[in-house]
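Q: Convert this sequence to structure tokens.
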Amino acid sequence: MPGRHANTQRYALILAGVTSAGILAGCGLGSFTSGLGGGLGGGAATTESAKVTDDELLAAARGDGAFNGSLGEISANCPRIVVPARDNNVTIYESGRAGDALAVMHRGELSKTARECQIEGNRVTVKYGFSGRVLLGPKGRSGLIALPVKVAVNDAKREPIRAENMRIETAVSLDKPIGYFSAVRTVTFELPVGSRPGEFEINVSFDRNIPGAG
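A:
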């Protein structure tokens, strides 16, 4: 099947190029953020520098699949979004062939994050989102691909106070081997006395506890 062989070589080259780009770009996660001023006692914040929407996140993901730079400013008045270097991607292999580049079914990558905050007294509401892409591998199949993502809100001591498990989905095909995804959520939590929103963080990562993950 020369056609299938050509596709295998093509997808191997795509994945190799993406992996190299990720290594060169380092592990810093690009994000566009909106920190709303006013402190803890100033009531609801009204100023923002970026909207967190699916469209904006998808546009950011399509524009660049590597973690290289930020869109907007980092604010001490809004929890930051953290994507651990090891968990910003996940590769799914054929059973028993983890680590074999020619056995890759698909690879998921988190590429952009965003958040905006509203502070009322000691209550913080964060609208956050993330986006990325899925690449079809040499052993991949056309169709809808779903990958699990874990989100945890951690306090100043890095203890989780909120957690959510979700699934991202995107369609890929032999003709269009790259699919894009985005997700937007809102979380609200109370600040302990003496704490600041900037001391908290939202941790986003792929869940690797699935068959074939490597």
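The helical segments are 2-25, 54-63.
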